[in-house]
């Protein structure tokens, strides 16, 4: 099964992947790292608010919400060729 | 004096541990950033601990415990985190509080703390939640790997706290030199592999609810329901307490006593005027008489206190349940339009209780610009619970639609002023970055302690100011000073706002306390029409912060920005009042 790289902002609600990298400035990277949002971590997107609102996701045992801009700079390896899981599968 | 500093990530329960160690209650909530300033308390080292001679502490010694704001790293990103790092400098010992369900993430700060060389211990807090989260930690192994004592605790119930204290003699410096972030993460990786096992756990109902409350559609529906029920419940509890407890007490028990005192003091005498006030139709009127013992007691205790209690009961429940950060996510887009981000909803919500802690809570915001906007908006557009109680009590009597007009005006002002400030002020609002806590069913004793701490805070601060205020007002009236002043401000009052000229007295007294000032509106020589009452209440609410708020604004913003904020408040409130006067 091949992998597709996606930005966190573009993932579907409920989609799961592994963080490949943070493509942001030093400030953003330091803050996210310290919160435990790091490459190699499994991530599940929970929701995105309309009008470029914040993106909420689950990582390890906790949830984080970050602005849309930042979510566009979190690169995630998602499994491709597979639909996003339905609600009942989450 | 030797001091022990409690350090840890936000929302791991530091304040509850602090309470367990010192018996000093500090407000703790289920969201990151409740503690924005440090709190000091004292604890006596128990005499029955073995091996104390090896530690820096003596048996029975009184040590200072410092509850520091939560931080993810020792490289601070907000004012609250700066405070935390500052606290570390004076630490004789660190207790690092860790959320056991998120060991890996929490260990990053632990690594940094181990590099400081300060003796330290670790409390694995929230231990009770590890089981249903599928987390299992080998405490002994973790302790061996870290080289400092590690103790599982459940601070809300007090479990593990004695054990933690008994390990004080073993506290040791972390024998690690300062490293790069990648090296820290590498060590954490090893630690986690060795000491933690994760098992799959099924999503519980409450976890599904967590997801639903941050999804756009279901989230807004839940938010709407929560806010509606919240205000319903506050009114229901507040009015219930007033109608069934406070009013019967004051009418049946307090009034006869006061009548006797009134007869003894002779109506019309100076002392009667100050203590009892003016008789209305030969009787004491608890709102209109305006004496220290009549209105001065009735307003804070019978009219305001029930709402304060109701408000804080509900707010504290929402805080401890963990709902507020979700509201922050839902409202982020809206708040960005007014120069803030979603998390600014926390100070704004707190402001509905009292503006003082609300202004303090703006420390969780990252930039000075955001803090200025938040402080100004809260002072002008977020009415405190005491003020709201009086608006419900006095304006609500004339009809709910008038209360709605006041609320709508304040909300519109808050929104429009925010939009304008966001446009004219240099800079931009940073993006939201916020950890969303799990929902937790509040621990009832801890919840009630918190409500009581807030209610007591109100009684301690409000009661003396109101009593003194009533006294001062009576003196100023009898000296005729308000009359002179009313002459100067008459053009503004009469032409612009359509109010009688003597309405300036309550508006100025609003500087002392707004609830009392609103009560004064009922005592004016010419009774106000409904329209005038609405205009006067709105201007009073927005015009100028009360003295307590003024003091924290000055401290948090500095003189220059404080003056700027004040100028905005005066201008905007007069503008809003004039518009209401024109269109109503």
What does this molecule look like?
With 90 residues, chain A is mostly beta strands. Chain A has two helices and six strands. The mean pLDDT of chain A is 86. In chain B, the strands form three sheets. In chain B, strands 2-3-1-4-5-7 form a six-stranded mixed β-sheet, sandwiched between helices. Chain B has helices spanning 14-22, 79-88, 103-114, 139-146, 161-166, 181-195, 205-212, 216-265, 270-275, 295-321, 324-337, 345-351, 355-361, 368-381, 385-395, 400-424, 444-479, 481-496, 504-509, 514-520, 530-543, 547-557, 559-583; strands spanning 3-8, 39-44, 62-67, 93-99, 120-125, 135-137, 150-152, 196-198, 279-280, 283-284, 433-436. In chain B, strand 9 and strand 10 (283-284) form a beta hairpin. Helix content of chain B is 59%, strand content 8%. The A-B interface holds A 13, 27, 30-36, 38, 46-54, 56, 60-70, 90 and B 72-73, 75, 77, 101-102, 104-105, 108-109, 133, 135, 181, 185, 203, 210-211, 214-216, 219, 325, 328-330, 332-333, 341-342, 430-438. Strand 5 of chain A pairs antiparallel with strand 11 (433-436) of chain B, so a sheet runs across the interface.
């Amino acid at each position: 099964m091949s992998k597709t790289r996606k930005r966190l902002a573009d993932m579907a609600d409920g989609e799961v992947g592994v963080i490949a990298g943070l493509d942001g400035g030093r400030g953003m990277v330091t803050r996210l790292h310290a919160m435990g949002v790091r490459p190699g971590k499994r991530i599940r997107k929970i929701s995105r608010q309309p009008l470029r609102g914040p993106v909420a996701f689950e990582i390890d045992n906790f949830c984080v919400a970050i602005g849309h801009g930042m979510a566009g700079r979190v690169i995630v390896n998602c499994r491709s060729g597979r639909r996003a899981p339905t609600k009942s599968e989450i | 004096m030797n001091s022990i500093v409690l350090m840890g990530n936000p929302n791991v329960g530091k304040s509850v541990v602090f309470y367990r160690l010192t018996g000093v209650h500090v407000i703790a909530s289920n969201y990151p950033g409740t503690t924005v300033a440090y709190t000091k308390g004292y604890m006596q080292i128990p005499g029955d601990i073995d091996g104390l001679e090896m530690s820096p502490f003596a048996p029975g010694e009184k040590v200072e415990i410092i509850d520091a704001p939560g931080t993810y790293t020792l490289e601070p990103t907000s004012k609250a985190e700066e405070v935390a790092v500052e606290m570390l400098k004076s630490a004789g010992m660190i207790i690092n509080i860790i959320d056991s369900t998120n060991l890996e993430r929490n260990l990053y700060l632990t690594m940094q703390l181990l590099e400081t060389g300060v003796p330290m211990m670790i409390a694995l807090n929230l231990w009770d939640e590890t089981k249903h989260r599928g987390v299992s930690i080998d405490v002994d192994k973790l302790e061996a790997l870290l080289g400092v004592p590690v103790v599982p605790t459940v601070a809300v119930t007090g479990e593990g706290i004695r054990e933690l204290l008994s390990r004080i003699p073993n506290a040791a410096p972390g024998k690690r030199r300062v490293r790069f972030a990648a090296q820290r993460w590498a060590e954490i990786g090893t630690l986690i592999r060795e000491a933690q096992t994760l098992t799959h756990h099924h999503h519980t109902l409450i976890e599904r609810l967590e997801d639903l409350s941050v999804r756009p559609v279901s989230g807004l529906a839940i938010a709407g329901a929560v806010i509606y029920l919240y205000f319903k419940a506050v009114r229901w509890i507040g009015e219930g307490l007033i109608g069934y407890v406070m009013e019967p007490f004051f009418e049946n028990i307090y009034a006869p006593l006061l009548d006797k005192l009134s007869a003894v003091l002779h109506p019309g005498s100076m002392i009667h005027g100050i203590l009892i006030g003016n008789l209305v139709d030969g009787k004491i009127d608890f709102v209109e008489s305006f004496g220290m013992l009549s209105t001065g007691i009735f307003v804070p205790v019978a009219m305001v206190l029930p709402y304060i209690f109701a408000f804080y009961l509900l707010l504290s429940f929402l805080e401890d349940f963990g709902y507020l950060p979700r509201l922050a996510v839902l409202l982020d887009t809206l708040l960005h339009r007014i120069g803030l981000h979603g998390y600014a909803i926390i100070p704004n919500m707190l402001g509905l209780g009292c503006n003082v802690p609300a202004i303090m809570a703006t420390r969780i915001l990252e930039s000075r610009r955001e803090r200025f906007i938040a402080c100004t908006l809260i002072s002008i557009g977020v009415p405190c619970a005491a003020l709201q109680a009086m608006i419900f009590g006095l304006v609500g009597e004339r009809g709910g639609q008038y209360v709605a007009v006041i609320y709508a005006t304040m909300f519109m002002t808050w929104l429009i002023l925010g939009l304008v400030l966001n446009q004219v002020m240099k800079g931009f609002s940073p993006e939201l970055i916020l950890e969303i806590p799990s929902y937790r069913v509040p621990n009832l004793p801890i919840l009630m302690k918190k409500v009581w701490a807030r209610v007591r805070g109100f009684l301690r601060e409000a009661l003396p100011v109101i009593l003194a205020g009533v006294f001062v007002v009576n003196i100023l009236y009898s000296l005729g000073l308000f009359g002179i002043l009313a002459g100067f401000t008459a053009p503004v009052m009469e032409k612009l706002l359509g109010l009688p000229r003597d309405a300036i007295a309550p508006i100025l007294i609003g500087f002392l306390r707004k609830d009392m000032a609103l009560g004064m509106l009922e005592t004016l020589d010419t009774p106000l029409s409904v329209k005038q009452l609405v205009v006067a209440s709105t201007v009073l609410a927005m015009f100028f912060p009360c003295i307590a708020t003024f003091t924290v604004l000055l401290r948090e913003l500095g003189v220059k920005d404080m003056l700027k904020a004040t100028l905005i408040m005066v201008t905007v409130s007069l503008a809003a009042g004039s518009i209401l006067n024109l269109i109503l």
